[in-house]
């Protein structure tokens, strides 16, 4: 058995993700957040016991360094050569208790500082913002952005649902520390937004984050995987904190089955209030949720400014182009898709979940570029621009290459910018 954890991986949200190369230092997370989607992936099969018992592997630091100094031997080679922003913290927190013990993130931070590589972090941890070994590396590093996850300013609810995490107030202070470090900025990651927990304090939380120096907000609503026994075991806690039967609420107001995602109408008043609050305080607004993604300030739903070198080869970028021009073509986003995703097969993409043997057979032999083009031209596919954004983009003819042209139908709930 390999003693190291294997990372990087291609995001399963590659179709509409501006940072599809995602990286984790550790194969487990020291925190125990009840809503964590990665625990429902990792607490399955042979790895279940190791994950639930908090056994951990770290990446091979030297191997990661070689991937960046000699990118030709990796699927991520072209991505690295173009210095596209890498997402750090997709399934685990790189600054959690495991990092305090092993320090592998620190080793890699020193390396990435040397090669001046652009990074976007996602964390709930704060101790590192008080540790000079870390803060000296962030200071003045203009291409390092940090997203701090805070779902509520209610400390009692946060303590129950985000086990082992610093308090919301501590995380707000960490935002302030990073904002003052003159690096690539701090973002409030209000994800997942949980009705009954994130409410009623969410607008005040946004204002507090803005006062601390956060320049962007990224949000996404809580989804329920009702087939997960682990999540079902957490439902009594959710019900008590929210004040209603959460599973029944999601079954009633979701348009899907199995994986339950609240419908657009339920989300609209909250999105409206979030955007209004951000506009009032001058904070950029982003939605990672497929619903209302057209309201993103630009094509990186995680909150990166449009000047950053993220991938434009994805459907969130297409949505922004369509909003501006009334329509969008595959050729408008094809450059990054072709250069970044042509060099490897869809079925062999590192860390990518192909879901089933039937899907693997269906797309066997396709490159990831071919797969993205297939999604574009098959509007009934769940990840096509038409289905993904639920009719905000609709197919309206074909271009000279035979690829679909999409028209924009969205009606902004507020002025976008």
Give a nutshell description of this structure.
With 417 residues, the protein is an alpha/beta fold. The chain has 18 helices and 15 strands.
Round the mean pLDDT to the nearest integer and report it. 94
Distance between the termini: 52 Å
Instruction: Assign a percent range to the helix content.
Output: 25-40%
Helical stretch tally: 18
Beta strand %: 5-15%
Number of strands: 15
Give the strand line-up of the largest sheet: 1-2-4-5-6-8-9-12
Low-confidence stretches: none
How large is the radius of gyration? Answer: 21 Å
Structural class: alpha/beta
Report on the biggest sheet.
Answer: 8 strands, mixed
Q: Tell me, what's the shape?
A: globular
Describe the 3D structure.
There is one protein chain. Helices cover 39% and strands 14% of the residues. The protein has helices at 37-42, 48-52, 61-69, 77-81, 97-102, 104-115, 132-138, 155-161, 168-180, 202-211, 229-242, 246-253, 264-281, 315-325, 330-341, 357-362, 368-377, 385-388; strands at residues 9-10, 21-23, 32-33, 86-88, 119-123, 144-149, 162-163, 186-193, 216-221, 224-225, 259-260, 284-287, 327-329, 393-398, 404-408. With 417 residues, the protein is an alpha/beta fold. The chain has an 8-stranded mixed beta sheet with strand order 1-2-4-5-6-8-9-12, with helices on one face. Strands 13-15-14 form a 3-stranded antiparallel beta sheet. Helix 15 runs antiparallel to helix 17. The model has no long low-confidence stretch (mean pLDDT 94).
